[in-house]
């Protein structure tokens, strides 16, 4: 008799999200290098923007966690975010 002892692990399906829209400055010494390289690697992505996929949306724009974190911190320091639970 054949019986299953441990359930087979099924990976969740990959969720495709839009590219992070944060602009990224090219390297100062080889300005075209970044653009050429990323255009080859991911032709559907904008080579002048961050190459990560987005995980959050801020003000209607998609951002990866790295850039969203910086943006959220800027908003926090400007007082645009309100601490939850305070009344
Ligand atoms: Zn990003």
Explain the overall architecture.
This protein is an alpha+beta fold and 87 residues long. 28% of the residues lie in helices and 7% in strands. It is flat and about 65 Å long. The structure holds zinc ion (ZN). Zinc ion binds next to helix 2.
Topology (SSEs and partners):
Layout lengths: L30 H11 L14 E3 L2 E3 L1 H13 L10
Antiparallel strand pairs: 1-2
The structure holds zinc ion.
Separation of the first and last Cα atoms: 64 Å
Low-confidence stretches: none
On the 0 to 100 scale, the average pLDDT is 91
The H/E string reads HEEH
- Helix/strand-derived category reads alpha+beta
Q: Percentage of helical residues? A: 25-40%
The number of strands is 2
Strand content: 5-15%
Spatial strand arrangement across the major sheet = 1-2
Q: What characteristic shape results from the CA principal axes?
A: flat
**What count of helical segments does DSSP give?**
2
The main sheet comes to: 2 strands, antiparallel
Radius of gyration: 20 Å
List the ligand species: zinc ion
What are the key terms here?
87 residues, alpha+beta, single chain, 2 strands, two-stranded antiparallel ribbon, binds zinc ion, flat
Summarize the structure.
This protein has 87 residues and is an alpha+beta fold. It is built from two helices and two strands, in the order H-E-E-H. It starts with 30 loop residues before the first helix and ends in a 10-residue tail after the last helix.
